[in-house]
Hints:
binds nicotinamide-adenine-dinucleotide, 6-stranded parallel sheet, Dihydrodipicolinate Reductase, domain 2, alpha/beta, 2 domains, 10 helices, Rossmann fold, 30% strand, 9-stranded mixed sheet
Amino acid sequence: MSMRPLMRMRPAGATYGYAVRIGGIVESSQDNGQAGAQPIGVAVVGAGYWGPLLVRNFAGCPEFRLRWVCDLAKSRAEAVVGAYSTIETTSDLSAVLADPQVDAVAIATPAATHFNLASMSLQAGKHVLVEKPLAATHAEGSELVDRAEQSGLVLMCDHTFCHTPAVKKIREILHSGELGDLHFFDSVRINLGLVQRDIDVLWDLAPHDLSILDSILPPGIEPLAVTAHGADPIGAGHACVAFMTIELTGHAIAHLHMNWLSPTKVRTTLIGGSKKALLWDDLNPIQRLTLFDRGVDLADPEDMPEQARRDAFVSYRTGNAFSPALPEREALRGVVEEFAACIRTGRAPLTDGRAGLRVLDILEAASRSMSFHGATVGLRSSR
Length: 383
Ligand SMILES: NC(=O)c1ccc[n+]([C@@H]2O[C@H](COP(=O)([O-])OP(=O)(O)OC[C@H]3O[C@@H](n4cnc5c(N)ncnc54)[C@H](O)[C@@H]3O)[C@@H](O)[C@H]2O)c1
């Protein structure tokens, strides 16, 4: 079913195009160039660590008019909008959902609450942006996707990294075939992280790398099966260090390393192909991406002398390394703009509910594997 684009008409006599600083955030409303279109009314639910970043980006995006911030702890919502804001605050989601000026809801609460809050919002006819992971289980996520599709509403998952210039560039390079056939994807996401109470390191950090993998894989390459190991050396009650391996079609392999206990912060992804390889170092702003014209070729025995044929199986290519220029842009700005574009046009978001489901499929399989000490678990997703 196709999605319902937003068609609220601009009220007669209304003028747009102002920006006012209110209580520390900029409330803005500008004509977005679409005749008859008015800003999309949006509410942010959850004003803990991540919610305020969404608030700032919605407030700074002319496509949106931020109307509400909702948190069970109303004082947090009030602190985010500031004392003199016209943005309303509440601890009661039903007040938000009853407001006809609210077209869309962004949910930045703990994963266990995503299903209920997103279901209520879809039920009320609101478009939904939900933080990663889409839901606490694949079954819940699947129900959300069905509900959104049946009602023609946008359901977008905030897989933030997929909206960074670096990941968009990596996707472009892989899809263009410049790397050749994919051989491996190897990511490291480690630092002294906040040990979460409700979820293990796998559910906290792996959604980032799984969503990145999901968004960059070229057509025809799919995750097939997962093995995972985790450890809880500090007695936190769940894994604080985890390693995940994913079998991909075409003899390719992905490996993910997540760790809350590492004294140093590392954010690297190495992607190897049959022609070139690519290193993404997210902590190196002057050289985030490096494309290597280096690799290993299988030697063609026909071209080799007798002795060399016995000695060598492979030949090495040592060409240049190149670092493409990338714009510096806040990824969340890309997220809110993508959400607006999908609400306006009815097209599916780059990181739609189905992308969220594929991530949940791998997370559940990895948890199952971890509980069986690294047994291989097949995946149900088909891309
Ligand atoms: N995209 C990213 O890169 C990224 C980064 C960090 C966190 N997140 C995600 O954002 C979400 C929130 O994480 P956080 O670190 O901000 O958590 P947090 O605990 O700091 O904040 C959560 C807030 O939600 C409120 N809340 C809980 N239940 C609620 C309900 N039913 N109604 C209204 N408010 C409710 C809490 O009072 C709290 O203020 C999680 O899903 C997390 O995975 C995403």
